[in-house]
Every structure is written in structure tokens, then in C-alpha cells.
Amino acid sequence: MADARVVSIWRGSKAIFWRDMRLIWRHRSDIVNPVVFYLIGITMLPLGIDASRQLLAAIAPGMLWIMAMLATLLSLDALFRSDFEDGSLIQFQLSDQPLYLTVLGKVFAYWLSTGLPLTLIAPILGLMLSLPADGYWALVFTLIPGTAVLALVGALGAALTVCLRSGGLVMTLIIMPLYLPVLIIGSSAVSNAVAGFGYQRELALLGAGLALALIIMPPAIAGALKISSNQ
Amino acid sequence: MAWQWFHRLGSPRWFYEKSNRWLTWLIPLTLVLLATGFIWGLAFAPIDAKQGNSYRIIFIHMPAAVVALAGYYVMAIAGGIGLIWRMKLPLMMMKSAAPVGAVLTALTLITGSLWGHPTWGTFWEWDARNIFMLILLFLYLGIVLLGSVYPSRDAADKACALLALVGTVNVPIIYKSVDWWYSLHQPASIKFTGESSIYSSMLYPLLISVLGYYCLFSLALILYTRHEILVREARTKWVKDLLPLHSKGGRSASL
């Protein structure tokens, strides 16, 4: 009887995705900020440690990954904040569409606007850190699934802390330990590539991590949103 | 009704009254086991051929590590039960398990670095197990922190339970990845005394210590949970009957 009002769930998540993309486009600085943070963070390194090419090349894989992780964490705080403040979050829960699909659409839009730009700028920053030539493709290929995992896991922290006044710091503290495997695998893939070894194993592990995160994180994030918006 | 025991677990009052009886034998059992394990291990077990007397800290160190890791799973499972069946008591147990586990993890790290100083020559080494215990401490502290910043107690419980559950999936991954990182970066420069190569005269006191630590964990968990029950149920009649002095003052019932 209500056939006219039934929306297919895929159309629903597509609508959420385009809504978020439009919102992000209207606040373009949200895309630029993490990238600028990444740039500034990497710039600080040679100044704070040592600008010799040898040392920079040695620490480049790990530093590029750590800074990408921090840039993700900083930008994730805003993921659900505006939806929480204007009440959209409650509307998402009231709608027919399962909340985890809404979450998936939002996280995908977020990743396109943060993870992807970070990945694309990483080779340039690698150049600044005189990353050896073999490392660039490994860096890009591992950052693509890596930042997606970071976004999915970090979104849980954002969802849990969206109702708190100083949520950003709390989120960082609870999420950082969970990021450790991605950091280890990602940076060792780049180091392996630099040393002349293959990095298919690391890439496969990151892909497996992404698959696992895609399965378990959206329902967990949806649960977290219900907890933090219904109190 | 086969499931009756399970539903009873949801009742804080039932737990409080039952645990009265458990405590009467759990406290002496814990003391006896720990005293036996420690005295046997610290005073009577033979000296290690390579490490001398300094190895004896293993009787305090290793059981703490084992129980600290197990404690994370106890916490997560309790949280999962509380989330799925919406029971109050498991959520209280989850909240109580976090500080106990954090203290045990910290104890492991402290005794480990004390042990490392004479044997490895350093208080801290970026060794796979060291890093893993440190990350475990961060995970525990994250739960304690999240529980303390939420304005409402209900939401805090559920949020912590959710975080603990997600952490459970991550703990084995962290363990493997740290192990893998270690094997990538450092060829075995430090040899551990393998557990299979331990003499039975050292193994038995160690096992008794492990049992003692498990009992200690349960004991601390029960005591913390009882405290939590009294705080949360302070308005109910049975708590007021139990603690007539406190409830008269009104606010002091929150003790």
C-alpha cells in the first residue's frame, strides 16, 4: 500500500552519499585542512630532527604514515558533529533505511574527501623527505586501503564522542591504539619497497583489514551513534 | 528452566547476596594460592643458571601478564552480554574490570622493566611483548577514560561495551602485527627463557601463582562490582535495608 514511498536501500545510501558530497563541497576548507596539516607536519620534521637526506630517507616511510594517521584523526572529529547538532542524526535513525548503510555512505564520502587527497599528496611529501624512488607506488597503493581502514575505525571514535564537549581529544586517545596494525603494516610495506622487496603481502593484509572493517565497523558505528544521540 | 541461572545474572541484588558467600572462601583461597606461589617461587625454587636470582620476578610478572590479557576478554564478553541482553549486572562488571585490568597491565610493565634492567641491561626495550602490553594498557585506559567522560551512566556503559567489543577483534590483530614488526626489524637479539624449557621445580610455583592471580582478579572484580551495585542501587529498598545508616543521610548513600 505504501509502495510509492518505499525507497530502495541503495538509492537511500546514494542519496546520503551525494548529500554529504554536496555539504563537503560547500565547506571546501574541510578538504584542504587535513592536507595542509599533512604538509605542515611533514615540513616540521627536517626542521625538528635533521635535514640530511640519508636520515630523512630512512624515516620517510614511517613519518608519511604517522602524519597521514594524525591528519585523518584530526579531521574525523567533524564527521558526525554537524549532523548531531542540527538533528539530522535523529532523522537518520527514524528513517526506513538501516543506519549502517547511512553510515557507510557518510564514511565513503568522508574518505573521498580526506583519505584520497591525503593519498594523492603523499608522493609529493615523499619527494620532500627524499623517499627513494621505489617507495612511491607502494606508498600510494597502501595508503588507499589504509586510509579507508583508518576512516572506518576512526568513525567509531567520532560516533562515540560526538555528544561530548571535548570529544576530539577523547576520540584520539581511544582510537590511536586501534590504528597500530595499519600503521605497522603500511609503513613496513613502504620500507620493504624501498629496500627492493615486494609488498604484495602487506597490500593483501591491508585489503583483508579493509574487508573486515567494512563488515564489522558500520554496524558498530551505527550502534555508537544510537548510544550517543539518545541520551 | 535451564536458562534461569542466566537471567538471574541480570539481577544485581542476587549477585550481591550470592557474592557474600563466594567471598568467604575466595579471599582465603586467593591468599593461600598467592602466598604459596610467591614463597615457593621467591624462596625455594632453584636459582636460574643464567639469570641468577633476578629471574624470580617471573613469579610476579608472568601471571600478571596472563591475567591482564584474559581480563580484557572478560571485560569485553561481559560488555557484550550487557549490550545484547540489556542486563545491568554484566555492564557493571565490565566497568569494574577495566581498572583492575589496567592495574595488572601496569604491574606487568613495571615488573618487566625491573626484570629487564639486570638481564637485558635496559629498563625498556622495543620488544614485541613490551609494545603489546603497553598498547593493552592504552586500550584499558581508553575504556576507563570513555566511561568517565560521558554525562549519563547508561550511555557510558554501552559506549564502553561497544569499544571493548571492537577492541576484542583488534587485540589479536595488534598482537600479530607487533610480533610481525618485531620479526621484521630485529633478528632475535634477546633470547627468552622458553616456557617449554622451564624446569618443573620452577613451573609448579609459577602455575600456582597464575591460579592465585586469577583468583585475585576475580576477587577484585567482585569487590568492585559490589561497590558499583551499592552506588547504582542506592535508591532501592534492599540497599537501604542493608545499609540503614548510610541511607538516612541521603547523600552519603552514594558511598
TrEMBL record, chain B:
Question: Transmembrane stretches, by residue range?
Answer: 22-45, 57-85, 97-116, 131-150, 162-182, 202-225
Keywords, A to Z, come to: Cell inner membrane, Cell membrane, Cytochrome c-type biogenesis, Membrane, Transmembrane, Transmembrane helix, Transport
Q: Which domain of life is it from?
A: Bacteria
Cell inner membrane keyword on record: yes
What InterPro entries does its record include? Cyt_c_assembly, Cyt_c_biogenesis_CcmC, Cyt_c_biogenesis_CcsA/CcmC
Please give the chief subcellular localization of this protein.
membrane
Location of the Cytochrome c assembly protein domain: 13-184
Q: Provide the topology term for how it sits in the membrane.
A: Multi-pass membrane protein
| Compartments where located | Cell inner membrane; Membrane
Q: Name one Pfam family in it.
A: Cytochrom_C_asm
Q: What does this protein do?
A: Required for the export of heme to the periplasm for the biogenesis of c-type cytochromes.
* Recorded family membership: Belongs to the CcmC/CycZ/HelC family.
Protein name as annotated:
Heme exporter protein C
What is the species of this protein?
Answer: Gilvimarinus gilvus
Its lineage opens with: Bacteria, Pseudomonadati, Pseudomonadota, Gammaproteobacteria, Cellvibrionales
